[in-house]
Structure formats: C-alpha cells, structure tokens
Amino acid sequence: MSVINTNIKSLVSQNAMVKNNRDLADAMQQLSTGKRINSAKDDAAGLAISSRMTAQITGLNQAVRNGNDAISMLQTTEGAMIEMTNMLQRMRELAVQSSNDTYTAVDRSYLDLEFQQLKTEVNRITDTTEWNGMAFLNGSTINDDTTVGKFEFQVGANNGQIITHTIADIGFRADPGLATFATPTPNVAAASGPPPVTAQKQISTLSLSGIYMAGDVISFTAGGETKTYTVLEADLASTDNATNLASIAAKLLIAADSPMGNAVVTRNSNVLTFEATAAGTGFTTGSTITLTKDNGALTNLRSLTILNNTDANESLVELDVAINRINTERAGLGAVMNRLTYAVDNLANVSLNTSESRSRIMDADYAKSSSELARTQIISQAATAMLAQANQQPQTVLQLLQG
User: What is this structure's pTM?
Assistant: First the structure.
C-alpha cells in the first residue's frame, strides 16, 4: 500500500532505534561505572541483596579496625605492666638485701629511699598511663553498666558481636583521706571530798587529713547523732590540699547542723571541735571513710618499708603477692590479645568473601558489556540508515502524480 500520511516503515525504524539506544545507554553506563546494577530497574532483588552486603562489608571493615585498636590499647596496658613488674622485682631485691643483718639502720634507710621512690613510681604509672585519653589502670574508666575497667570491643558488623575484657584497678591511693577523732578534754563529773573535783565538759576534735577524691563518703558520730557527707568535685578545686581539707571541713560543719545532740560543733580550718553542752556530760565519737577508690590490686604496697629486718621480710611476702597479681593481669591481657588477633583475621576473611559475593551481583562483566556496546552501536548505525531509507521511500509516490 502506497501512503504518505502515515509512514509505517519510518515508525518501525524509530521504535527499533529507541529500544536499541536504551540498550546502548545501559551498556555505556555499565562500562562507565563498572557496575552491572546502577539503579533498581536494572535488578531490584540484586540491588537489595548488594545493599545488605555493602552494610555488612563496611561493618566488617570497621570491626577489623576496632579489633586492631583494641589490640593496640591492650599492648599499651601490658607495656606499662612490664615496667611495673621490673620495678617490683627491683623492690624485692632491695627487700632481700635489707633483710640481711649485715646492714645498719642507716644502711637500711638508704635502701628504703630507693624502695619508696620505686613504690611511688609504680603507683604513678597506674594514674598516668593512658590510651586515647583514658587512664585505664587506676579504676577511673567505668563502663555503661557501671563496671569498673570493663571494655567491650565491637568485633562484628552487627549488634552484640563483642569481646569483653576487664582491666583491673591495680593502683592504690598513696595518701587517702582520713577523719580522725581525738579527745583532748575528757568528760569529768563533779565529785565531793578532798580534793574537790570540778566538772568539765568533754571536748573532742575531728581532724581531716590526706587527699580526698570526689565521691569519698565521710561519716562521723558525736553527741548521739551520726552525719554523713559525700565529697564533691567543687571541694577539691584548689591546688593546695590544705585549702581543700578546710573546704570539706566547712561542709561537714553544715552537715552537722550544730548542735549534734548534746555537742556544739565549731570549725577551725580542717578541724571540727565538738564540745558538750553541759559540764559533767560526755558523748561517744567515731568516724568512718568510704573511699571511692581504695581497692586496687596493689593496695598492699602502700605502707611497705624496709627500714628493719621485720619490715623487709614482710615486704618480701607482699611484693610476691603484688608480682603475682600483675602476672595474672598480664596473662589475661595476652589471652585476649591473641583472641582479638584471630577475630581480626576472621573478620578480614569474611569481608573478603562477602566482597567477592557482592562483586558477582553488582560488578559489570566488561567482556559482555563491551560486546553489547559494539552490537548496539552497529544496530544504531544500521537503524539510522534504514530510517533514512524509510523516509525516502514515500518520494516514489510522487511519480504517480506526474503525467
């Protein structure tokens, strides 16, 4: 049929070109991006699977870094413990030397000088050894579940895939806060007979000493009443410890809310004075300190000296205990570091295999895509030529109109 108004052959060529150009665009996009799936229309299910795999892979790769960071932190911890062990061994050597009676008291005092310096340095290391700003040997690091020294290492891509390890508080407070009662003026009741005895009021004092930490709880009893006060950070604002002690004593005076029973309370610097309200009356006194931190593994070192044979031999026993505690901690660190190493190796292996699986879904096959590109380019050129021919064919109808 010879028609002009509707060029069927041209429309057929145009439709073929549209489809072919779409395939050509897909092939070029795959070759340009290197991906077989560039949008959901390419493969909806494959896109969903690859997206989940991507989340898994990025999580695994971060878990590998987490594991390596954990190993680094634990290595730092053990490095500090190595030096602590070396110093404890030297302290033990000095204790053995001092326990020998060939040394005079003066000689032993010289030995004790080094002994005390090493003891101080052992404790200082627990306070100053840090990783990423965290001091983890002195019990100051607290987990979300309030466990002291507990670390949860995220070594997986998903929730709950953790390895936990608790680093013990191995330090000690060299000079913990104390609250000590004394009674310089005891209660005396009046008595008749020669010589006459004059009644007097009991006067007791509560003296604060040492270095307090926020959270320390001071409980004191006098005049038949007991009061409690918890030390705050604000009480420790000064670099001068005497000022801090006076500040804490001032807070105790407020807590006492004088009088306490039959005792009137006053303060002078770091000392509270309790005076009976009437002569010939007295009261019991007492105080307790609940320390925020005083349960470190090496607390037994605090009072050790080697100034005499007895002290030196006692130090030997306590140093053996301390060395054993450090060895126990180091063994635990070594075990978890080995575990983390294997965990990291496994994570890297899983990440590799998951990446390979995702590649099969997502990545373009360049041999196939380049062949598709060549095919669609040839067809595009042929379709263009055919469209030109289709557009020329109606010209023959003009011959029917001539004559």
Answer: 0.73
